[in-house]
Structure formats: C-alpha cells, structure tokens
Design a protein that fits this description.
The chain is α+β, with helices and mostly antiparallel strands and 313 residues long. The protein folds into 3 domains: 82 residues, Ubiquitin-like (UB roll) (Roll); 83 residues, Alpha-Beta Plaits; 56 residues, Alpha-Beta Plaits, CATH 3.30.70.20. It is 22% helix and 24% strand. α2 runs antiparallel to α3. It is flat and about 80 Å long.
C-alpha cells in the first residue's frame, strides 16, 4: 500500500493502481470519456487530467494512466485542471456539437466559447477509441481500426468494406458513449434478387461496419440467442461443440443422475454431444454424472437412459 493525498485528504491505495482507480475507490469522481474498466488505460480523451505534485514538480497528467506512488499530492479540480478540461470540451464541441454527452459536459464546465466547427455538424464519433479497443482487446476480433489523421481521422473497417472479422457481438455499440454505433436485431428479414424476395430468419445488423449475421434460435422457445459467428468463436476458443448453444440460458435445464438407479451402461455418455456426461467414482463403483458447466440442456441423456436414472427435476 502507498499513501497519497487527493484534494487534501490522505488516502491509502494499492500499488499498481492508477490515480483514477484510487480516486474512485475513495469516492472522488473524475470525468472520463475513453476509460473502461475492462480495457487497458488509454489516455486519449484527456478529460481525466489532474494536477499531480511529486518530487517537487507539478504536472498536468491523465489520471487513467498515471500510477500511484508514495507521497503524491493530487488536485482533481484545481483551476489549471478545470482550464484543461474546458479546452478539451470546447474542441469536442467543435467536432461533435450534437452529442448529448458533450453538451452536458459543456454545461457542467460552463464552456461557452467554441472554436469554429469543422464542417462536421452530423459527426457523433468523438474518437474515444472504446469500440476499437473493445473489439481488439476483449473480443479479439480486430474488425475495426482508426483510419486517417487529424480532422480526417475516423473509426472504420479495412478499405471501408464490410467488416469480415466482425462477429456481431455488439461490444462496440455497448461501450460507445455517444450511441452512434447502430446495432439492430431484426425479427424478420428477406433476401431480394431479380426474381423477387425470399423471407429469411432473424438477423443482427451493425450498420456502421456493414455486417449482417444470422441469429441462432433457441430450440425450445424459438427466441434468438446470439449471432452465429459469435457463438462459433466462443465454441472454438473454449472447445465447445455448437450443440452447447442449442438452448438459451432461460430454457436450459440440467439433468441429474440418480446414482441408485444408474447401472453404468454408458448410454448417456455415448449420446452426449458436448461431453457433459462422464463416469465418476461412487464408492467402489463408477456412476454417470452430468457436469452442468458443460451441459447444453438437450436432454439426449434423459431420452436414452433406459433405467430412469438420468432425469430433470
């Protein structure tokens, strides 16, 4: 643990924490736009800057990237900090004047003077990078990246084409602070050609990346579970078979084995598509057991058990 001061209050923080983490852990709120606890610190928006005094030197630094150390003296709302944040907000207002989150910040920090707009009246991307980092760091798809520079900088797909690596998970839309990334789940779709239109099943579209993926349906209730490529990626990474996703979590019920009725005939183990049914030691005997963490809820084991040992409920 290290001891530091935030706004005149002495606090303890764990080594390895950032100033932002230490502040929030002690009830001190610092505004951010590009920070998310699931992602590595980035420090691009500069809204989380604080005044830090250490070793006789005072600097203005981003709190999300600055590590705590013994004896730091931090001011989160000093005049210099407020002035720095106002400059950041005014530049964001020049780029994205219609974004509610930026408008709210401008009112909170009383930002009235805004530099000339950059001919982007309908721009809603603040270039925080959350979508790019979530896609790369958490999802591991790497379907989108930054392109261009300066006022031409954008988040885009390679060559502005449909994102081939996008699995339709929607993480980008979830973390986007402005709501500009549009994810839609369509109940009814159609494929149209010269000979007319053929009805299709439910799909998820992410308009920004020009992708559309089939939604896998629950075999029990018929409701959509998730995009097919997303489930395929999860299955590959965690060594699941696709049958694991036959049922949605709400409809998935897990069988149990009555050890007194089990004859260890092996039928449930052979028929299980995901390897959830296995033999386990039961005293001197081997009995079947269903590992619910691997079970897909298909109930093949209950259907095949001729002794009534494998049952639901």
């Amino acid at each position: 643990m290290v001891t530091l001061s935030i706004n005149g209050k002495t606090i303890k923080a764990e080594e390895g924490q950032t100033v932002l983490e230490a502040a929030r852990a002690n009830g001190v709120e610092i505004p951010t736009l590009c920070h998310n606890d699931a992602l590595e610190p980035y420090g691009s928006c500069r809204l989380c800057v604080v005044e830090i005094s250490a070793n006789g030197r005072t600097t203005i630094d981003s709190s999300c990237t600055y590590p705590v150390s013994e004896g730091l003296v931090i001011q989160t709302h000093s005049p210099k900090v407020i002035e720095s944040r106002k400059m950041v907000i005014s530049l964001l207002m020049a780029r994205c004047p219609n974004v509610k989150k930026i408008q709210d910040l401008a009112r909170e920090y009383q930002v009235e003077e805004v530099p000339g707009q950059w001919d982007t009246d309908n721009e809603y991307c603040i270039l925080c990078g959350l979508c790019v980092r979530a896609c790369g760091e958490v999802v591991g798809a790497g379907a989108i990246e930054f392109a261009g520079s300066g006022i031409e900088k954008v988040v885009d797909t390679p060559f502005h084409l449909s994102a081939e690596n996008c699995i339709g998970c929607g993480s980008c839309a979830f973390v986007c602070p402005t709501g500009i990334i549009k994810k839609n789940d369509l109940e009814h779709t159609a494929s149209c050609g010269p000979d007319g239109c053929a009805p299709g099943g439910p799909k998820r579209e992410i308009l920004n990346w020009q992708v559309e993926h089939d939604l896998k349906l629950c075999a029990t209730c018929g409701n959509p579970i998730a995009p097919q490529p997303m489930l395929e990626k999860i299955a590959e990474e965690h060594c699941y078979q696709m049958d694991f996703f036959n049922n949605c979590p709400s409809c998935r019920t897990y069988p149990t084995v009555d050890k007194d009725l089990c004859t260890a005939c092996n039928a449930c183990i052979v028929v299980c598509p995901v390897g959830a049914a296995q033999f386990v030691e039961d005293g001197e005997d081997m009995k079947s057991h269903v590992f619910t963490q691997n079970c897909c809820g298909c109930h093949s084991c209950t259907d095949v058990c001729g002794w009534g040992a494998v049952k639901v409920g």
